[in-house]
Write a structure and sequence with these properties.
- This protein is mainly β.
- The chain is built from no helices and 24 strands.
- The strands form 6 sheets. The protein has a 4-stranded antiparallel sheet, with no helix packed on it.
Length: 341
């Protein structure tokens, strides 16, 4: 909780879940290594943590941390926001796309490499439906099913082929496909994207096999390539230095870097192709990959965590004394089944 990234009013780390403020109308949240963004169901946008490069969007770049949620501007039509390495992107209800923060590789997509301290509109289009910020790049989806990317391309993370330059400061189209359904740009310089037919695709940096393409394959990809040749029932994906995904049948799968047991497979061995995370019931609903740990929710409302716990990030409480947990552990705060909305 240095930088106040937990938003609970101080910089003390927590080993168990603590409510952020008194508000009970949050609709979505996105966290990265030093700041957090969240949207309330009244359309307001809030930020907390480190403000270097203006990443909180508050209109200035003091770098000084904010330990509790700060409102970003006066608008009431925000629908989602995504945190990158040091930049942020967000969507409004009218389909417009906005960005702010660090911009040295053009990751804001506003046509230059100058930082922005407040949200600035990306281009003139108003047909964006989802956006996801990676470490130094951004990927977004339009209503017509086309996929777009901008920012750093040092590791082919923009997916624009072998002749693409090292960076883009405006959105550029990824391939010719127009049937993309969702996108996940990771902090590990790779991307995971689903098509409308349920197939899963990846590209970018493939260190430790995080693209999931073939055994012993760690070569980067400069264009989207299908993960596997048979599965067409992928439902949810998330990645960091590793990759996690859920299939329509509720099974959970993992691949990539595994030094802290973050894959949940019971060991420290990296995987270059998806491997199922064994669990009683296999009714996973959502998953989120952190830098060295993973969190997931089952359909019964229970929350599970695994991987590194050196800062208490698994939420296991004082009894969670191990440095690493190699398999999913129930988070005590939500270890009993509860109805989900």
């Amino acid at each position: 909780n240095d930088d106040g990234r937990l938003g609970v009013g101080d910089t003390d780390s927590r080993t168990s879940p603590v409510q952020v403020g008194e508000a009970d109308n949050w609709s979505s949240v996105s966290a990265t290594w030093n700041f957090t963004l969240a949207v309330r169901d009244d359309g307001t946008l809030w930020a907390w943590g480190d403000n270097g490069h203006g990443r909180l969007g508050l209109g200035y770049a003091d770098g000084g941390p904010h330990h509790s949620p700060q409102r970003v501007g006066d608008d009431t039509d925000w629908v989602s926001a995504s945190t990158g390495g040091d930049h942020a992107v967000a969507l409004k209800a009218d389909g417009t796309l906005w960005a702010w923060g660090w911009n040295w590789t053009g990751q804001l997509g506003v046509g230059d490499t100058d930082d922005r301290y407040s949200p600035e509109r990306v281009g003139g289009d108003a047909d964006w439906v989802s956006v996801n910020a990676g470490y130094e790049h951004t990927v977004a989806l339009k209503a017509d099913g086309t996929l777009w990317a901008w920012g750093a391309n040092w590791r082919d993370q923009l997916g624009m082929g072998p002749d693409a330059p090292g960076s883009f400061d405006e959105p550029g189209r990824v391939g010719e496909a127009d049937d993309w359904a969702s996108v996940e740009a990771t902090m590990g310089d790779h991307n995971l994207t689903r098509k409308s037919d349920g197939t899963l695709w990846s590209w970018g940096f493939n260190g430790h096999g995080r693209l999931g393409l073939a055994e012993d394959d760690t070569a980067n990809r400069d264009a989207p390539e299908r993960v596997g040749t048979e599965a067409d029932d992928w439902a949810t994906v998330s990645g960091y230095y590793h990759s996690m995904a859920i299939k329509a049948d509720g099974t959970l799968w993992a691949w990539g870097f595994n030094d802290s047991g973050r894959l949940g497979l019971g060991d420290y061995q990296q995987r270059e192709i998806p491997v199922q995370v064994a669990s009683a019931g296999d009714a996973w609903l959502s998953v989120s990959a952190g830098s060295s740990h993973t969190l997931a929710v089952k359909e019964d409302g229970t929350v599970w965590a695994w991987g590194s716990n050196h800062d208490g990030q698994l939420g296991l409480g004082p009894e969670g004394e191990a440095d690493n947990y190699l398999e999913p552990e129930p988070v005590p705060e939500w270890s009993e089944p509860v109805p989900l909305l």
